[in-house]
Write a structure and sequence with these properties.
10 helices, single chain, disordered C terminus, alpha/beta, seven-stranded mixed β-sheet, 7 strands
Length: about 240
């Protein structure tokens, strides 16, 4: 089983419908707050179920949801098919989007499931598709020293505030015996220091890389914003000195 297979099938990452709804509401609100204008073309990469993507579409000119799992794409299309400014695509379809066409690319809770080489390829694609001056936000980045216990504590705090604490306790127990735990043991999750992810984003050709508030409920994970340069970087011309 791959990560794509996992997300394409039944899983218990969300401990209840209330957990799933509150999670996706928070993410939708965070993305909506980052949309630069009512005319913006926004790509949400690795969007998952995106239960409340209509909130983001409502403040965007066009919202493109990208999801690798075919079953999840089918559910997204069934849920949002009537929204004229929302479309659902696969990662392969992102590759053929017009260059310089996007105002904002969001990759939330995604890069931990990518190898470093896959991330480098994704960064190159996102840069090519963004308009000059367009923004990239990479969120929910896991630092190398973040303990699973800290993640669990943050989930329980979110559950307590959201009214699904008992379900969250049961969900944590189920996770120990779940395919997610097995896949995490087999493949691991990609982690990055702030300096490491900044270097990767800059090497991909982005500028103004900066920390920002993370999306979602876990402040111990990191988020970064960056911009595609508005002009190509040119090497200064060498001065020619005439001699006689």
């Amino acid at each position: 089983m791959s990560w794509r297979d996992f997300w394409n099938g039944e899983h218990a990452i969300y401990v209840s419908n209330r957990h799933k709804t509150l999670h996706y509401r928070r993410i939708a609100q965070d993305i909506a707050a980052a949309v630069p204008s009512k005319n913006a073309v926004v790509l949400d990469v690795g969007c998952g179920e995106a239960f409340l993507a209509d909130l983001v579409a409502g403040v965007s000119g066009q919202l493109i949801l990208c999801e690798a799992a075919p079953a999840v794409r089918d559910r997204l299309e069934a849920r949002f098919g009537e929204l004229a400014n929302l479309s659902v695509v696969s990662p392969e379809e992102v590759e053929v989007l017009p260059g310089d066409s996007l105002d904002l690319v969001v990759a939330n809770s995604l890069i931990q499931y990518l190898s470093e080489d896959e991330l480098k390829q994704a960064l190159a694609t996102w840069r090519a598709k963004l308009k000059p001056g367009g923004e990239l936000i990479v969120a929910d980045v896991i630092p190398p020293d973040l303990s699973p216990l800290t993640d669990a504590t943050e989930l329980l705090g979110f559950a307590w505030r959201g009214g699904f604490f008992i379900a969250a306790l049961g969900g944590l127990v189920r996770t120990v015996f779940s395919d997610y735990r097995k896949l995490r043991a087999q493949y691991g999750l990609s982690t990055y220091s702030a300096a490491g992810i900044t270097t990767l984003i800059e090497t991909a050709g982005f500028k103004n890389v900066a920390r920002r508030t993370n999306f979602g409920h876990n402040p111990h994970r990191m988020a970064f914003s960056a911009r595609k340069p508005t002009t190509s970087v040119q090497r200064p011309l060498a001065l020619e000195v005439a001699t006689t």
